[in-house]
Structure formats: C-alpha cells, structure tokens
Write a structure and sequence with these properties.
Blueprint lengths: L2 H21 L4 E4 L9 H10 L5 E6 L11 H10 L5 E6 L7 H7 L3 E5 H4 L3 H11 L2 E6 L9 H4 L6 E5 L15 H10 L4 E5 L7 H7 L3 E4 L1 H4 L4 H22 L1
Parallel strand pairs: 1-8, 2-3, 3-4, 4-5, 5-6, 6-7, 7-8
Bound molecules: zinc ion (ZN).
Length: about 250
C-alpha cells in the first residue's frame, strides 16, 4: 500500500476510535447539597436521588482550608444509611486531606476529591492511598491555581476525576466564573476520557458552556435544590450537556 494511503487509513482509524471513545463520555449531574436544608439532609439526599441525580456531591469544609464549616464523616455515614445506592463524591475542602481518607471510606464515600493546594507536598502519595482503599480519586484546583501543575499527576493514571472550581471554594450561591473554561479545555484536549467536573454557579443557563469546554461531571447546587421541579432541571441539564459533548465528538 502506498505510504500516503496507509497514513490516510491510519488517521481515519484513529479518528473513528477517538470519536467512539468520546461518545463513551457520559454526562453526570451531581447536585450539591450545600444549600439544601441542612437540618434535613437525609431527606434532601433522598429527594435528589428520586429526582434522577447521577451522584451526590458532598461539600466537606474544615473552617481552615476554607473559611466555613459544614460536616464530616459521621454525617456522611448517616447519609449513606439513607441512600445506600447513591454515588457519594466527597469534595474535601480541608487542610489535611490525608487525615480523612480512612474515615471517609469507612463512612461510605465512593470518590474522594481532595484539593491539590492542600496536598501539594505529597500529591502522588495521597492519590495512591485513596486508590488503595478502592475509592475513586478526584483532584481539585481553586480558581487561582494554574492547571499545568496537575498535569504530571494526571499522567500517573491514578486520577479518575479532575475538579475545576468555577467559584472560590467555601460558599454556595456564588457567580459562575466562565474564565475557568480554558482550564477545562486544556485538560480535555490532553485527556479525552478523564472525568472533568465543574463546581460553582452552574445551572441550566451555563451548562452548555461547561460541556463545550469538555466538562462531563456537572455539580449544581442552588439551581437544582431550589428548583420547583428538580427532576426536570436535572433531565434538562443532562440532555443539553450530553448533546454538546456528542456533537463535539463528531467534530473531532
Ligand atoms: Zn463542591
């Protein structure tokens, strides 16, 4: 076969392969219960799962890494009893993420998402430790953190999910920072299949922007929790984002 035809065939196969793989990228909508009725968290979790949530995003704050406090592993353990089958993504906004790996696994966490900024002295060690427990590994970056710093970690194959914060972590109800989208695109262009999660100010009005950049795990707090019809909001957001991602895969 002439070289140019061989090259063309190879390129075509690669294109078809990457297109098919991109189609495998599933959009998942994960309500954050930060702005839910914290006095009735168990029922709020049940309500979100009954509304069709793909997972629950649980924001743990220690009053040190961020200037706010929420809840820890004893509460997570109680919530696990209320929604035994829900996938729990623990967003650990804590200064010592090494300390809570065991307790959170014991409490029933499915994914342990720590902040790069809190673990930069031993990021690989922490990722390995989480992996060993059987939990999935997430790593998050604050808005001011350059995404380049986590690329070596992503090359390690230890990371299941990258969390790009689209607000300053620590409070719910903040305005979405669209200027974080280039970070999402930068990761998606290098890692076609990794889960990329966005968190902060995301709702039906901007979920398309997130998906266009390449995000497939969509955390949404207020927009879902306070919705008159959370089922419809979740369905709508998932459909919009999946459509954008599928179209993107055809263009590639
Ligand atoms: Zn979060």
């Amino acid at each position: 076969m002439p070289l140019n035809r061989l090259l063309k065939t190879v390129c075509e196969s690669v294109r078809r392969f990457s297109s098919r793989k991109m189609d495998d990228l599933q959009v998942k909508i994960g309500p954050s219960i930060l702005n839910a009725d914290l006095g009735d968290l168990g029922n709020e979790c049940v309500r979100m799962m009954d509304s069709g949530a793909d997972y629950l995003h649980l924001d743990v704050m220690d009053g040190h890494f961020v200037p706010n406090l929420t809840f820890g592993h004893p509460v997570v353990k109680c919530l696990r009893g209320k929604v035994p089958k829900a996938f729990f993504d623990l967003h650990m906004m804590v200064s010592n993420p090494h300390a809570w790996v065991g307790p959170m696994q014991d409490a029933g966490a499915d994914q342990y998402t720590f902040h790069y900024e809190a673990a930069s002295d031993d990021v690989l060690g922490l990722a390995r430790r989480i992996k060993e427990t059987g939990m999935k590994v997430g790593v998050g970056v604050k808005p001011a953190t350059d995404v380049d710093v986590i690329l070596p970690l992503l090359n390690s194959d230890l990371i299941d999910t990258v969390l790009i914060m689209t607000v300053e972590p620590g409070f719910g109800g903040q305005r979405f920072m669209e200027d974080m989208m280039p970070k999402v695109s930068a990761i998606r262009s290098r890692f076609p299949l990794i889960n990329i999660e966005v968190d902060g100010g995301v709702g039906p009005n901007n979920v398309d922007v997130c998906a266009e950049a390449g995000a497939n795990m969509i955390v949404s707090g207020t927009a879902i929790i306070k919705s008159d019809d959370p089922s419809q909001t979740i369905r709508h957001m998932r459909a919009v984002a999946q459509d954008v991602i599928n179209k993107g895969s055809l263009d590639r």
